[in-house]
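Have a close read of the entry that follows and walk me through the local backbone shapes. See right below:
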Amino acid sequence: MNGEAVGLGLPFPPLKERFERLEETLQLAKQVWSGNYAPFQGKHYQLEEPLISPQPLSKPHPPILIGGAGEQKTLRMVAQYADACNLFPMGNDVIAQKLNVLKEHCAALGRDYNEIERTLLLPLTGSRQLDIPAMIQNCQEWAALGIQHVILSDIPELHTLRHLETVARDLIPAVRDL
């Protein structure tokens, strides 16, 4: 990611600062989306009149999805600010642990865990042939853990639509009601 930032001429501060900036951005976004244009004074951002016009159509604000599985910062920010979290295939025991940590953060903040949509990003990179039975089994296992949606990414040969057609025909109907 640093190479991409350098190539685009964008700053790429240390991880700690990137998390601080993310949290301030979430605070600021929720503030202005609520119609509160009071000055914002954060460590990294200072705005005299944070104004968004026009306001978003989604109420109370556009859904916020935070991806990542860091137990101390990322999942706490999910519990505090997000409408959805996005995890990755990392073993079912690890996914269960991450969701338990999210529940703990929600409890500590007084937030209902069930208000947060739980998603999983499944990259298909390198798949010449989709293993639909294995994908169905994975989706069933993830649903049992509490994952509500699986997001497919990096779909190979997308220009041919072959894999998309297979997913639409064979995978989605099999997992739709999990």
Notes: The mean pLDDT is 93. Residues 15-33 form the longest helix (19 residues). Residues 1-33+47-62 form one domain.
